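Anyone able to model this chain together with WQD?
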Amino acid sequence: MILVTGGAGYIGSHACIELLNAGEDVVVLDNFCNSNPASLDRVQEICGKPLVVVEGDIREQAAVEKLIIEHGCTAVLHFAGLKSVQDSVARPLEYYDYNVIGSHRLLRAMENTGVKKLIFSSSATVYGKPQFLPYTEDHPLNAINPYGRTKLTIEDMLRDQYVGDPTWSIGILRYFNPVGAHESGLIGEDPRGVPNNLVPFVAQVAIGRRDRLNVWGNDYDTPDGTGVRDYIHVMDLAAGHVSALKLLDTPRCFAVNLGTGAGSSVLEVVRAFEAASGKHIPYDVKPRRPGDIDAYYAATDYALRLMGWKATRTIEMMCSDHWRWQSSNPNGYG
Ligand code: NAD
Ligand code: WQD
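re: yes, here you go
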């Protein structure tokens, strides 16, 4: 039985599909602070298989221990946490509480119940300002905002834990920019409030929930002047977790990029989304967003060598799958 923390969220729900399809049993622990339990009904509908859903908080260590024992969990995929860079600047203590203290309590609960296999959702944001590109996994780590520092702190805690007890097996997955949705259109990203991220915002313009996109700067050192990122289809990302999980039978601690290796600019994404949706996306160019970096993308050879995994879906597929979800669920899960 695999414990999936934060499994009702955007990436966790897609990972649950890949886990169930790989024949794993799944128990999700989620407090639904940024998700809707309906996502997990849809996951079960897609897979034609049940999973167990427990409403609860990773910071409740005793409850997590009880859950692990009751369900006989043998490994943990840890997605639960807060993820907005902007909110983390305004409310850093909340981010340290959910992310760092939450992960610490989860690790304690695992230690006390003898569960030593963990996959952790980290982020390319731990690399900070690029000293070279593509980011290889040995690029210096230098998070530049509170959210990123919580991820880096958790990474450090995990590396320390492995040194302290090398019978643990820990996979740290550094996601680049996850977009898209399951090809059924039944599940997808459902941001609360105004989306911070590019593709959810573009999708809401396309569906008519927002008037125009703000393009944050067109004077970057990139081919068309707009920011370049490594967008990765969420189902490729989900598959990466199943590949990583297979490695945990042997004690180890590794950190690996999950990206495609290719960058797309903001305007390239807008054009791909227009083509996928048949909708015009009006936009205004605005000043740069504080803290944004010109361009970054992943080195992908280590993921291939280590796990035999690579992303296969194109930016066109990311946009058309995202659009299928958005257009069949204009208000998300409602
Ligand atoms: P999400 O907000 O959709 O999912 C997170 C889930 O965790 C939600 O269902 C939320 O309700 C739950 N949760 C939060 N705090 C909890 C707690 N204390 N106890 C129990 N459940 C809790 O976010 P996502 O996009 O699916 O991201 C999943 C993970 O991947 C996060 O750790 C995030 O930092 C990381 N990540 C995300 C991105 C991205 O761009 N989406 C990129 C890199 C890394
Ligand atoms: C992408 C590009 C923007 C919105 C963030 C986090 C990162 C990770 C992924 C969790 C940039 C531009 C955006 C808009 C725009 N999350 N943009 N108008 O900033 O690369 O990464 O999400 O770990 O930590 O920082 O993603 O989608 O916000 O921006 O022009 O309305 O789109 O300037 O160039 P980002 P994003």
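The longest helix spans residues 92-113.
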